[in-house]
Amino acid sequence: MHLYITGTPLGNLDDMTFRAVDTLKKVDVILCEDTRNTRKLTNHFEIGTPLKAYHDFNKESVEDQIIEEMKDGRTFALVSDAGMPVISDPGFELISRMQAEGLDYVIVPSGTAFTMALVASGISSYEFTYFGFLPKSRSKKKSKIQEIMTRQSTSVLYESPHKIKDTLVEMNEIDPGRVVSISREITKKFEQHVRGPVGVLLDKMEKEIPLKGEFVIVVEGAAPAEETFDIPIKEHVEVLVKEGLTPKQAIKKVAEVRSLKKQDVYDEFHDIKK
To answer: Which end of the chain is more exposed for a tag (fewer CB within 10 A), N or C?
Structure first.
């Protein structure tokens, strides 16, 4: 076997598998994003295999050498800083090249943050789309969030601690009543999962949800508009208020879903007769 695509723990070293330790010990070279991070792992498990940097900034320049060494009989393990390699990390290019060259590889699995967050969210997982990290460009990010908020299936994405609030603000402007789940520090000491309407979670940021660690956001799919038309407007607003929205937020959402004027929904909710 030329390459072992090897999963490592997300944060808790007790999640390292026997197979992963054995694999990293027996290969000739470990390809890793950051040799400093991987060295902590290898030192902990007394793995003396040489490390070689393989990341977004050098992957093109080292790929030819790696392929040639594989053809000469050297074996490699590909790891990321945490979790499964290739997921929102470099590696698919190398695997594609190996397929073209007829070189073999296997997967040594571990968990991934987005699947764990999806499991913990309590949101439907029968159909979902993984978006990874949002675009860095503000306009492209805004467009991507709009796409996510209009999808009728579940969406999962990663976000950094210094961008999480801005992302929730964008979602809140589109649909403050949309149920989302926020997970952080998965498998670590301060692991946290919080679920609720995005407008409510936005108020909890910093107060109850520290802006530390990497975040995974799970977004409930948008319900088809016709599904909410079988109850009176006033009752529709009251249901959203019970879910945690303010009356103002609920009125806005009902107006958007039903394609009505906010003033008409306001009047109906407050029993204002014209």
So the answer is: C
